[in-house]
Each structure stands twice: as C-alpha cells, then as structure tokens.
Amino acid sequence: MTEPKSHGRKSIRPTLKPRDLMAEPVHLAGVWTARIITLFPQAFPGVLGESLTGKALKDGLWQLDTIDLRTHGIGRHRNVDDTPAGGGAGMVLRPDVLGAAIDEAQATARGAWPLVYLSPRGARFDQQMARRLARADGITMICGRFEGVDQRVLDHYGVEEVSLGDFVLTGGEIAAQAMIDATVRLLPGVLGNAASTEEESFSDGLLEHPQYTRPAEWQGRTIPDVLMSGHHGEIAKWRRAMSEEITRERRPDLWSARGSRSPGD
Ligand code: SAH
Fold first, then answer.
1. Is residue 172 a known part of a binding site?
2. Which of 75, 80, 112, 201 is most buried by a 10 A CB count?
3. Average pLDDT, consecutive stretches of 10 residues, N- to C-terminus, the chain (265 residues)
4. What is the tally of structural domains in the chain?
C-alpha cells in the first residue's frame, strides 16, 4: 500500500450542516462576532454548532467568520509556512501571509475588537477573560499550526497571546472553540436562564456546590435532606458552605485570591 502524497485536501469534505450555519454572508451589525484565521476553516463551527451555542448562532445572537489562511498563501502552491530561521524542527507561519489575513480580518472590525493569537505562551484564559471578551464587539483569533507564527507579526500588530492551559496542542482551533464557547454563553439571550451564569463556578471566585436530581435514592445514595426540605434560605446557606469548602480544598489559589477580586471582574 502506498500512502497518498497529499494528505490535506482529500479529507476536506465539510458536512452540510456546519457550512450552512456559516453560509450567511450578511453581517448583522452589533452582533458579537468571532473571526477566525485558520488553515482549517472546515473545523468551524465544530462543536459550537451544537446545542445552545449552535442555536444562538442560527438565531443570530452571535456570528462566526472564518478566514482561510491558505487563500493568502504564496505562489501556485499557496505556501503559508517556511523553515525556522536559525534551524530546528518544523515549520513557521510566514509573517507576510499571516499579515495579509490579519489585514483582511481587521478591515471590518468595529469598536472593541481584541486581536488574539492562541498560544501556549499566552496569558491563561479564565472566566474573567471570557467576561471581558463578551463585553467586546467581536474578536479576531489567529490559530497557529506547526511551530507557530513569525514573532514579527505579533510585534507589528500588538497581538495579545492567550493560552488555553499549560499543555501543547497541535493547532489553535480547539483552543479558539473553547474560548468562544465560554464567551458566547455569557452573551445576553444565549442561555435561556440568565441566572445560571450568576451562580456557577468562578462567578464569585468560588467553585460550584454539588448538584443532584431525581431519583431521590440511587444505588443506596440519597440526596442531602436540606435540598429536599423546600426551605430556600437553608438551601442557599448549604450551597454557599459547600462552595466554600470545595474551593478551599481543591483550589487554594482561588480561595486565597478571593479577597483581592473586585466585583464584576
Ligand atoms: N512551538 C510552540 C507550540 C506550537 S503548537 C511552542 O512551543 O510554544 C501549534 C499551535 O497550536 C500554536 O501556534 C498555537 O496556535 C496552538 N496551541 C498549542 N497549544 C496551545 C495552548 N495551550 N493554548 C492555545 N493555543 C495553543
């Protein structure tokens, strides 16, 4: 068996459903927009096309644009990368190619519009950053591949580097989708029940209390009595105490940072 020479193209068979969600060329003014620079536009909306984020996308509560980095590639083969200056393994995305894609992305950016490169060297993404991004008008996200991008692009455009966590992915697309998901669910109207973002983990610097549902007994385990008591004051007190206990035990870093947070952060 011989391996096919080109791996990339033949596997590109986007399913109809996700493409349909993005086929809308019209831009809804004032709608939070994620603009993604990627070599793999067919990876979007991906999981964002499902469930609440997918419904919100269809309903126009947010919008998604992809910019195919390949279309800015050089020459007949639309090259986007080259070998690292100074030697070493892998390939680096070229600044001229990426720069052209960024120019395209930013040409229609309006208002507060962060320009972000997903990168393991970036500031760690967290709920506070999701809240900041949700307050912006949109965002441009650069998904790296291979060894990453030429440093000059980051310097020239003053790109903000953001990391999903202390591990290395093969590309920025999964990180972008995780960050968009966390941000979009904070946009007004996306979660049916707005109160649910106010009580969940990190909303006040605490992890969430345990949750239970029917049946009342399962495998000999029961639901804590207080939750079945109907006494809302006691229930709120219990939930708060559990939140504090879990946070203290599992995340001493969050627990000790609590005093220094400002409300709404
Ligand atoms: N050589 C780079 C890693 C490149 S990984 C380094 O050592 O820092 C290839 C691409 O995956 C990166 O350009 C980036 O866009 C993305 N990526 C990898 N890990 C990531 C993380 N933790 N958070 C966000 N993006 C990440």
1. no
2. 80
3. 43 46 64 98 98 97 98 98 98 98 97 98 98 98 98 98 98 98 97 78 92 98 98 98 98 90 56
4. 2
